Amino acid sequence: MSHAHTDAVAASAIRKVAIRLVPFVALMFFINYLDRTAISFAAPNGMNSDLALSAAQFGFASGIFFLGYILLEVPSNMALHRFGARKWLARIMVSWGVVALLFTWVDSAVELYALRFALGVAEAGFFPGAILFLSLWVPARYRSRILALFYLAQPLTTVLGAPLAASLIQHDGFFFGLAGWRFMFFGVAIPAIVMGIVAWFYLVDRPADAKWLTDAEKRWLTEALERESREKTGNDHGRHGLKVAFTNGRVWTLALIYFGFIYGLYALAFFLPTIIGGFEAQFGTRFDLMQKGLITAIPYLPAAIVLYLWSRDATRRGVRTWHVALPAFTGAVSVPLALYMDSPAATVAVITVTACSIFAALPNFWTLPTRFLDGAAAAAGVALINTIGNMAGFSSSYVTGALHDLTGGYTVPMFVVGGFMLMSGVLMLAISRAPRTGTGVRMAHDGAQAH
């Protein structure tokens, strides 16, 4: 087969994966993220007052989700590796959809805690499973592009989800007399159940089974992925085993880097609507429910654009250290800076810089673990990194709420967020300079020189 023909087959295969799989999995992620963050829209719009929640109690309810998630994260990804993504991701979606539906009738803080914990258990393994699934479909040189397209769903969840949630909340008493925030929970839960059923029939576990690929495309993808697997394994067969995920210093360093980004991500996701709700007391400005939803969405549309352009550059150059470290440092400065702005517009503008920083880094970050992990080790390693990150999801929610109650404002909590993002940047610089035989990760690929 000529080089030109091979390139044509490769381009066609990657294009089909990008069209047939990525939008569908991204839609699953959209629903996933909307369901787990729906509580942030409900809180300032009746839930906190109806359930008599303090900021610390709301933070605990937001964060306890991640305790349930953490418990089953690695086992869930190992089950996906064993049973296949199609069955496992479909099962996860239906499970969390059923639990999410029950939020419609929650009546106390204790019930809210229990349901948030159960939602975490039900969702466990979805995100790392989706990352692993897409990574197993494309060679490393294409992953930053594919994962960027997938990751667009996360900021777009808020761009589209905030106005959607506001619209549902406005239908107070519309559905069997339910309060608006309860109807919102109902409205965002049903799509998860429907998509889970569809996923069972739509997803395909591996290129060789895809009827929408030609024989040449199947052969090219299969051979390219098998060749990468052999190269990653090399003479170190431990890289192919489960043990490496828990003993490799690179995995733990990447987990701490991810922790810092996720701490920032969920501090914004859960408390941004509440911060915007406080603009009236802080600046004397009044916004109706839909306006608050639209303002909440503002930072995330630029974030989606920056995510795409930043990852496009990373695909062209090869992922470099600064593709992850620079956004971390930018976010570390902008998070606390937002609190010193003198108008709602300036505050939202600086928060937008923070959102852009976090989302620019994340898809490029997720290309790193599968550069040196394969097979069961990749399944466990990706899940372990995500598990540590989700510990940040719990701690950022609870600590932010508790520090707010203790200090009477968000200044101290946001400086803590900035500190963790600074940690991510420093560790990213450190891991790129460490020897690859230790904790180092090669930061460029496909002929590009390492940074």
UniProtKB/TrEMBL annotation:
Q: What is its main location?
A: membrane
Transmembrane residue ranges: 17-34, 54-72, 88-106, 112-134, 146-169, 181-203, 251-273, 293-310, 322-340, 346-365, 372-392, 412-432
Report the locations given in the UniProt record: Membrane
Signal sequence residues: none
Fetch the PROSITE patterns from UniProt. MFS (PS50850)
Record's keyword terms, sorted: Membrane, Transmembrane, Transmembrane helix, Transport
In its keyword annotation, does this UniProt entry include Transmembrane helix?
yes
Source domain of life: Bacteria
The record places domain Major facilitator superfamily (MFS) profile at: 21-436
The protein's name: MFS transporter
